[in-house]
Amino acid sequence: MACEQWRGKLDLYLDGELEPAEAAALGAHLPACSSCAGDALERVQAKRAIAAAGKRYEARAEFKKRILASVTPPQRSRLDWQWRWTNALALLLLAVAGLLYTVQSRDAGRRRVYSELADLHVAALASAAPVEVVYSDRHTVKPWFQGKIPFTFNLPELQGSDFTLLGGRLTYVAQMPAAHLIYQIRKHEISVFILQNRTDEFPASPGRPASQLSFNTESWTQNGLRYFVIGDASAEDIGALSKLLRGAG
């Protein structure tokens, strides 16, 4: 497919609206084409800038608490049954609204985190230098992160597996320093993000490979760290790499 046709699909790719096979083909094309990679990187940077600007006007949990605290039931010495039912209905509606707000906030948080991870994954693939430290063995990549991130982690032994560690880079997820590792399997790149776990920032772990945007993903917590695995490889490959990382954790 010509680059002109791929460029017309970049926005769909970044928004997770391409079919899996087409998304995988475009993902494989980006590292080999500097022109398309540059366009993808510009779009990712624009998306992240718009998302950051939008957060400035996002309602915070403290605002919701103040609103709820200001709602007090009226004081009356005698209430007829109609008022009692009206008051009960109002409290029920308030409880339902609070529940919907919580669910929607969690869903929005989940979408925001995975959208940010997808942007970082695509930006790395589109970059002329996707890794800052090139892999020679697992004992060269891990020490490189010392002093750059406030935690340590272990890497799995890959002998006997189909995975190759290309290297790593320092990045930020939800404004927190994170290790970004890039693995490869059958010409598919997989990003692994490792950072300190914050239950107030990150959605609950799905516990199994799931589909987010155009990628398969898996996430879990272990030893106070949060792991995110994302890529256009198959769900089976995502699960296999996640199993290796859990075993090394």
Write up what this structure looks like.
With 249 residues, the protein is α+β, with helices and mostly antiparallel strands. It has one domain: MucB/RseB, C-terminal domain (Phosphorylase Kinase, domain 1), CATH 3.30.200.100. The protein contains 8 helices and 7 strands, in the order H-H-H-H-H-H-E-H-E-E-E-E-E-E-H. It has helices at 3-7, 10-14, 20-29, 34-55, 61-70, 81-126, 138-144, 235-248, and strands spanning 133-134, 164-173, 176-185, 188-196, 210-212, 215-222, 225-231. A 7-stranded antiparallel beta sheet has the order 1-2-3-4-7-6-5, sandwiched between helices. Strand 2 (164-173) and strand 3 (176-185) form a beta hairpin. Helix 4 packs antiparallel against helix 6 (81-126). It is globular, with a radius of gyration of 23 Å. The protein starts with a helix and ends with a helix.
Features:
249 residues, alpha+beta, Phosphorylase Kinase, domain 1, seven-stranded antiparallel beta sheet, globular
Explain briefly what this protein structure is.
The chain is α+β, with helices and mostly antiparallel strands and 249 residues long. It is built from eight helices and seven strands; from the N terminus they run ααααααβαββββββα. The protein has a single domain, classed as 2-Layer Sandwich (Phosphorylase Kinase, domain 1).
